[in-house]
Design brief:
Length: about 400
């Protein structure tokens, strides 16, 4: 049951990186906004400088009225003189102006500075307009490099520190896992010896109610053992799908649990309303965990001298359904019965892991489960196996 260290480190490194990056990138957004505002101010200053140069040129021309005035031209700037109604006297600007009010204006990537001139001083023009283009690409490129550097550094540091911190826990986890595996092995050996010797005693001396109780208890213990074994191997062993005769499989599991039922005088009734050979392509181990845990719970919470009905049938979509109905205490919280370690009755035996194993299996396989329960009257578990999970086998 060792936690996958690589997955753990990658997962929490990513989470930690996202959280810290969000915290650190918030000031970066303020920095970007500051840089953009600063660039806007610089652009406005440049436009004012260009206009000052143009006005100086027109002032100098006023002293030489006999000459032809050559309007200043600039590589990155366009300018123009406009009348009161903003009809051009002369202009290098070819698109409509964004505003007719003096001041600094923006339109897309273009920036304009409109300045009011003294009346009739400069070629009977009332306004001087200067335009340039602005680009924030360098700002965003710089911000992207900073953000990339921050995120990369945090990710690398997170990965390094989490990997270092996880080593002691991994060693403890490995020792615990080894202990559990060895314990499970030690439990399996005497369990097998008890079962074999009880069977030999039955063969030699006939049935004995006391030995039947021992055998029933060992079968209940075997179900818990199989759950624990499945949990240990869950993330390490690939349980391969294989053809399973569902009818024969259920018959065998019913026979297995009949001895346990005898102690409470519970009758197991199995009926099949589908073809006698529905071949399910599924893992035998996983199917056994589904059936055994559901039947085990049904027996545990059934009233003495009651019955448990196991049915195999088709639904409207021709999927095959397996239902297990008991007539016992019922479930107070059906929505919680699939939670790990949840137990309806703390004084009942069991660890509350069986149905959580079932949930992990059916979620992975896409098997639907419907739970209906009424306290004091019993519970009905219905598993729906999609028809695509079955092989067509001639009868």
């Amino acid at each position: 049951m060792i936690v996958n260290e690589e997955k753990f480190v990658k997962k929490y490194s990513l989470i930690y990186t996202l959280i810290v990056s969000f915290i650190l990138l918030t000031p970066l957004s303020l920095y970007i906004n500051h840089k953009i505002n600063l660039q806007e101010v610089q652009t406005e200053v440049e436009l004012k400088s260009i206009q000052a140069h143009i006005i100086k040129a027109m002032d100098n021309f006023g002293n030489h009225p006999q000459e032809i005035f050559e309007f200043p031209r600039f590589a990155s700037f366009a300018s123009g003189l406009y009348k009161k109604d903003f009809t051009p006297v002369y202009t290098q600007i070819h698109e409509p102006l964004p505003s007719y009010m003096p001041g600094y204006h923006s339109k897309g990537s273009n920036r304009y500075l409109i300045t009011q001139l003294p009346d009739k001083k400069y070629f009977f023009a009332n306004y001087l307009v200067t335009k340039t283009e602005i680009s924030f690409a360098p700002v965003f490129f710089e911000a992207s490099l900073i953000a990339f550097g921050i995120i990369t550094l945090i990710l690398l540091l997170s990965f390094y520190f989490l990997k270092s911190f996880s080593k002691p826990f991994r060693r403890v986890n490995e020792k615990l896992d080894d202990f559990i595996k060895e314990s499970m092995h030690e439990i399996n050996t005497p369990l097998s010896i008890i079962n074999v010797n009880v069977d030999l005693f039955d063969a030699l001396y006939g049935k004995n109610k006391y030995f039947n109780r021992i055998k029933s208890a060992t079968r209940s213990l075997a179900t818990i053992y199989n759950d624990m074994d499945y949990l240990i191997k869950q993330n390490r062993v690939a349980y391969k799908n294989e053809p399973i005769n569902l009818y024969d499989f259920l018959q065998e599991r019913v026979s297995y649990f009949e001895l346990i039922c005898q102690l409470k005088e519970i009758e197991l009734l199995f009926t099949c309303n589908v073809e006698k050979k529905p071949i399910l392509f599924f893992s035998t181990t996983k199917l056994q965990r589904i059936v055994d845990n559901t039947l085990s719970n049904a027996i545990k919470f059934s009233f003495a001298k009651s019955k448990i009905e196991i049915k195999l049938f088709h639904d409207k979509e021709q999927n095959i359904c397996l239902s297990i109905q008991d007539y016992g205490k019922g479930i107070q919280n059906p929505q919680r019965i699939l939670e790990r370690y949840y137990r309806e009755n703390e004084y009942k035996n069991g660890f509350g892991i069986g149905m959580s194993i079932v949930k992990s299996i059916i979620d992975e396989a896409g098997i639907d489960l419907d739970i209906q329960s009424e306290p004091g009257k019993g519970s009905l578990f219905t598993y729906t196996f999609k028809k695509s999970m079955f092989q067509s086998v001639p009868v």
